[in-house]
Design a protein that fits this description.
Largest sheet: none
Helix content: 40-55%
Radius of gyration: 61 Å
Number of helices: 7
Structural class: mainly alpha
Distance between the termini: 128 Å
Number of strands: 0
Length: 213
């Protein structure tokens, strides 16, 4: 049964008839054998104590050394490769020229060709670029290897070279030095193969070798 308490007497008096009627109904209900069961009101049960697990300690991250990588685009890489190739070619050329220079101190063209396996024309070009000369060949007509067909073949090759020297504008002295023969042999080849080799000319454009800077 719910009781209501109010300080307002008028409101209390107004509820008296209702309480009287309710009391009569309860009495009649009990006389008929009914029972009134007083129900227990709700009770507060506190929740069980929660036991939280201990907080986990996170391991500190390991500072891994990240290798530094330089980004090079394709154009830059091609330029670097080209410079490296040019530098290597220049180095190889300088080493070859120094090697040929040392051979020229003690060898003739023929001996250098045999020692290096390079064509004589290549050796002549290197000698001109390096500004050095090979030892002149000693020509002796009484040597067995200069007689007969071998001698004629050598003279023919020398004559072709003399014509080439003439075309590029070498003087007679320069041609003799490049050919590695004596002045007498040079004149003999001119006469034998009917080569009109001009003597040194005076003028604004004489035959000469460009000096190496």
């Amino acid at each position: 049964m719910i009781s209501y308490i109010s300080n307002d007497l008028n409101m209390v008096k107004e509820l008296d008839p209702q309480r009287h009627e309710l009391a009569l109904q309860m009495e009649a209900f009990l006389e008929k054998g009914g029972t009134i069961e007083v129900l227990q009101g709700p009770s507060f049960v506190p929740p069980p104590v929660r036991h939280d697990p201990p907080p986990t300690v996170k391991a500190k991250p390991v500072n891994r050394a990240i290798p530094e990588t330089a980004y090079i685009d394709k154009i830059t890489q091609r330029d670097i490769d080209r410079e490296e190739r040019n530098a290597q070619r220049a180095k190889d050329k300088a080493e070859l020229m120094e090697r040929i220079r040392k051979l020229a101190e003690t060898m003739t063209y023929a001996q250098a060709v045999e020692a290096t396996g390079m064509p004589r024309r290549s050796l002549e070009r290197i000698a001109v670029e390096g500004g050095f000369k090979f030892k002149p060949a000693i020509v002796n007509s009484r040597q067995p290897h200069l007689r007969g067909a071998a001698s004629e073949e050598k003279h023919a090759k020398d004559a072709e070279r003399i014509k080439a020297f003439k075309e590029i504008g070498l003087s007679r002295n320069q041609a003799i030095n490049q050919l590695g023969v004596t002045f007498k042999t040079f004149n003999m080849l001119l006469a034998k193969f009917n080569i009109d080799y001009p003597k040194r000319r005076a003028g604004p454009n004489p035959a000469f070798f460009a000096k190496q800077q």
